[in-house]
């Protein structure tokens, strides 16, 4: 008899015992006598809106260019970047008996606030400012002035810029996460 068969004969009973123990343990976990509890939290709504937001615009990542301390001290602001939200499939006739036709919209940007600006993480002494195409600044959590809806597709243009918040400057890479919503009325 070879040495390998001798080791097999000694190891086989141990492996069988471990397999049986594992099967018993997994059966005990799946046994109906051991109750299992779980919680499911759901939230959502079905709404009738005159427009949809283009899926490409729902999750945008905007890369800001480099701003210098000199720009911030001299101008009170640094780099800026244009971005857009596209309303698509706008149908101004209401499909609901309870709601009148929507002819206007309002956009609200939200996120942590810092001296009326959107707070950033990573650098200090600056915040983000969003303005609409007419130059109205967005205040976190407050709707911008309303605009008129047009049938079909409509592009909403905005400017995102880095602005001094009159606090001491600290250089660094920065980031922020902002949310937006469009209300129709």
From TrEMBL:
Membrane spanning stretches: none
Keywords: Signal
Domain called Fimbrial-type adhesion: residue spans: 41-184
Pfam families: Fimbrial (PF00419)
Signal peptide start and end residues: 1-30
InterPro entries: Adhesion_dom_fimbrial, Adhesion_dom_fimbrial_sf, Adhesion_dom_sf, Bact_Fimbrial_Adh_Pro
Entry-linked Gene3D superfamilies: Fimbrial-type adhesion domain
Protein name: Type 1 fimbrial protein
């Amino acid at each position: 008899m070879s040495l390998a068969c001798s080791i097999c004969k000694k190891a086989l009973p141990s492996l069988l015992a471990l397999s049986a123990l594992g099967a018993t343990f997994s059966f005990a976990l799946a046994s109906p006598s051991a109750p299992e509890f779980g919680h499911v939290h759901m939230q959502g709504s079905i709404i009738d809106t005159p427009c949809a937001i283009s899926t490409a615009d729902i999750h945008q990542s905007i890369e800001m260019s480099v701003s210098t301390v000199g720009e911030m001290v001299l101008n009170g602001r640094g780099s800026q970047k244009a971005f857009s939200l596209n309303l698509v499939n706008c149908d101004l006739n209401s499909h609901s008996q309870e709601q009148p036709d929507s002819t206007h919209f309002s956009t609200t940007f939200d996120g942590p606030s810092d001296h009326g600006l959107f707070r950033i993480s990573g650098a200090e002494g600056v915040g983000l400012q969003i303005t609409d195409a007419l130059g109205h600044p967005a205040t976190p959590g407050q709707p911008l002035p309303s605009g008129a809806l047009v049938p079909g597709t409509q592009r909403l243009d905005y400017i995102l810029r880095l602005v001094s918040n009159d606090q001491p400057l600290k250089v660094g890479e920065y980031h922020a996460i902002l949310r937006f919503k469009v209300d129709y009325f």
